[in-house]
Structures are given as structure tokens and as C-alpha cells.
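[Meeting: bench + compute handoff]

Bench side (C.D.) handed over the final construct sequence. Compute side (W.E.) agreed to return the predicted structure before the next meeting so the bench team could plan truncations. Sequence as handed over:
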Amino acid sequence: MTGHGCAGCAGEAPPPKKKDMPGKDKKKKKDKGEEIDAPAVIQVTLPADARLTVDGYLTTSTSSNRTFVTPALPVGETFQYTLRAEVVRDGRTVVETQVVTVRGGEETSVPFNLSSDIIAAR
């Protein structure tokens, strides 16, 4: 991935929020062959017509199942992304926001309900 923006069509997420970001010059393997950096995978389920932002970056995917891959993260450390889904139902905007914790090398599922009980205050 080049740069640090979200490339929703490429399925990449922006860098996670953490005080000490992993460096790009770190070794990728420990002496014993263990990986110390690996991307996290975020599997999002939501209506196909919903708009989705990841840490404020609008994604371009339009399916009901969306997969995002983070930059390489230290395995075992936790990072957070804020995902916000928005859809219009019966002329009203329905919004749901979730703060998602991910770990390098792991997969996280994020289902969005987007029920009409969650109406955006605009």
C-alpha cells in the first residue's frame, strides 16, 4: 500500500490509531522464523447500499460483505479503528458507529445492524 489513506476499493484500511505506530523498517521475522508483523483482517457485514467509513475515510466498496486489510501490525498488539455505516431508509438516515479492536495477524468480524432505531441526528 502506498501512503496512509483508505483504499476501500483495494480493501485496505488506513493505519490504526495507536500512540506508537509500528515502524516500516522493522524486521519481518524473528530469529526462530516467527512473524512479528502481520496485517489484521476486518470482515464487515452491512447492507450493500450502505456508505462505510474507516477512521473517517470513505470506502468505495458496495457489497454486503466487505473485507479490509490493515498495514502490517506487530502480532499480538491491539489497535483500534472507528467504522461508521450510514444508509437511508424510508427517507431517514440510519447511522451506526463501532470502535473495532484488531490485532496483527488476526481476523475480526464486524456486523452492522443499521436498524431504524438508530436515526442520525442531522
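W.E. noted at the follow-up: The radius of gyration is 16 Å. C.D. will use this when planning the next construct.
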